[in-house]
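Subject: for your reference before the review

Hello V.,

The reviewers asked for a structural picture of the protein, and I figured it would be easier to keep everything in one thread rather than splitting it across files. Below is the amino acid sequence we used in the manuscript, unchanged from the supplementary table.
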Amino acid sequence: MSVQDRQGRKDQVTLRARPDLYGIETLSAHYLKQSFKPHAHDEYLFGVIDGGVHAVWCRGEMHQVPRGSVVTMRPGDIHHGGADNEAGWRQRMLYIPEAGMRALIEDMTGHAATGTLDFGAAFHARPDLARRFALLHEALHASEQRLARDMALDALVGTLMREMAPQSVSPVQAADGRIADAVEFLDAQVDEDVSLDDLSQITGLRRRQTIDAFRRATGLPPHAWHVQRKVLRVKRLLRDGQTPAEAAAQTGFADQSHMGRHFRAIVGMTPSAFAKG
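And here is what came back from the structure prediction:
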């Protein structure tokens, strides 16, 4: 989607639908000329303004929502608006259907959620939370790996609930489950796109319990463990004479660039430099 302004600049918008992940949608946008008519969403809407100022009417009053603001709208909240000035605004949004939100809350707490969640307001000046939201949203919005998206969604919703609606969540009871089996599974599926549901079926735990138990047992969350194992295999493949592109393809990375970022973060050098060593 693009709308061009007088200087030739265009709105930049990407939307990702994840029907296999509670039916969520994620949106990343830089709006310059967009003007929204009064409307509401059937889903919960969580977001962050990470640039400019969004002028938006919601819950009976007009708001100038600046960078560093977190958005928490309930299903049915009527809102409309656009840019506060010609610089426009940037936003990241997460849309979660009510059924999906109930499932996420039940996974986090162990009991079914009732009623509509209360976040006290639609807009919150929380720069630190906004920065964390943006980082997790980027992983959820852009990652090609299911386990990475699963982990980002769990962390994002968990953070929002603990900080914005603590009355609705309680700590998950610690459980160990069959974590050794999950570790073995990840080690054997280095080249596969594994999901958190796959691991939960193995551990016999809920998604949140699986993450916590895995971290307690290994020191890492499941996705970080899986990436580490992928990088170790890339090292072996490079030593065997394969190219970085070939090694990336054989270990399930989205592409060579994706593999290279993780490789440098763990090994401390590029795959090409490692292969020459």
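For the response letter, the relevant points are probably these. The chain has ten helices and nine strands. The mean pLDDT is 91.

Happy to draft the paragraph if you're swamped.

O.
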